[in-house]
Every structure is written in C-alpha cells, then in structure tokens.
Design brief:
157 residues, alpha/beta, Immunoglobulin-like, four-stranded mixed sheet, 3 helices, 8 strands, 30% helix, 22% strand, globular
C-alpha cells in the first residue's frame, strides 16, 4: 500500500516538474513598439502578447500583401504562424526552433516589429536572405531586428 502511494506521489511530482518547466514570456504592446522587440525563449514555452487594445500581432508569413499573397520563407520549416484579431491579447506556444519575425499591421509604419527566437536561430540566414530579397516598404524594418539576432548568433557560434 505504501509503495503504491509512494509511486503515485513520485509520478505526480515528476509530471508537475514537466509542467512548471514551461515558461510564459510576455510581450507588451506599448504605444508604437513591442517590449521586448527581440525575445529569446525555449521550445515549448508560451509567449503572451498583452495590452493589445489598438494592436494586432501577425507573424510575417500571415501578412496580407496588396496583391492578395502572403510572404513566405522567414519562419522555421514546419512552424505555424499566427494572426491575432485587432485588440485581442493572445498566447502562443512555440515548439519549433528558429526565428519568428512579427509585426503590428496598423503600426508597421512606426516600426512596431519584433522577432521571437525559439531555442537556436536555425533559420536566421535564410530569414535574412528572404527579408532582404522580398520585404518592401515599412516591412523592411524587420531586417534590423533579424540582423540583431544574426549578429548575436555569430558571436556565440
């Protein structure tokens, strides 16, 4: 009887450790910026966008362009992008390693852009190449954020 209770207790503690290892990171939408604008997390962590009253958050692959298309090639292979509703706080769980550039569409002209780095930035060079080749207008502001991550990765590597 005691052995069975002990085993159940150990299993409960181990499952609690797994859940508590997952972190929740917050990105605050301020007047015309995301704070922080570059966020480093681990695979499986959650990112919560808050204070989104007059903002949205859209991964670059979900940005609608005037011709009706969407930009591709800047998220990690196999990763899912996102598009929040205007004024909606949103929580994402990101599992695939790499960089995830995102924007606030209504405030892109003010430079309201950011990058989430999940684990190792495995797609950083591809993301930079695609950004330089394809982003236009205010979306090019993402290049500076991606460059910041790329330089940090080269210093570590």
């Amino acid at each position: 009887m005691y052995l069975k209770r002990g085993l159940i207790t150990v299993l409960f503690v181990l499952s609690s450790i797994e859940v508590s290892a997952q972190q929740i990171h917050v990105i605050n939408a301020e007047a015309r910026i995301f704070n922080p604008d570059v966020l480093y997390i681990q695979p499986g962590d959650n990112v919560r966008f808050v204070n989104m009253t007059s903002h949205d958050t859209v991964s670059i692959d979900k940005v609608p362009f005037p011709d009706g298309g969407e930009f591709a090639g800047m998220l990690p292979e196999g990763a899912e992008g996102w598009k929040s509703g205007m004024g909606n706080d949103i929580t994402l769980q990101l599992d695939v390693e790499g960089v995830y550039p995102f924007v606030c569409i209504p405030h892109i002209g003010f430079g309201m852009v950011g990058v989430i780095v999940v684990g190792e930035p495995v797609n950083i060079d591809t993301a930079m190449e695609n950004a330089r080749a394809n982003l236009q207008g205010p979306y090019r502001r993402l290049i500076g954020k991606i460059l910041k991550v790329q330089r940090a990765a080269k210093k570590q590597g």
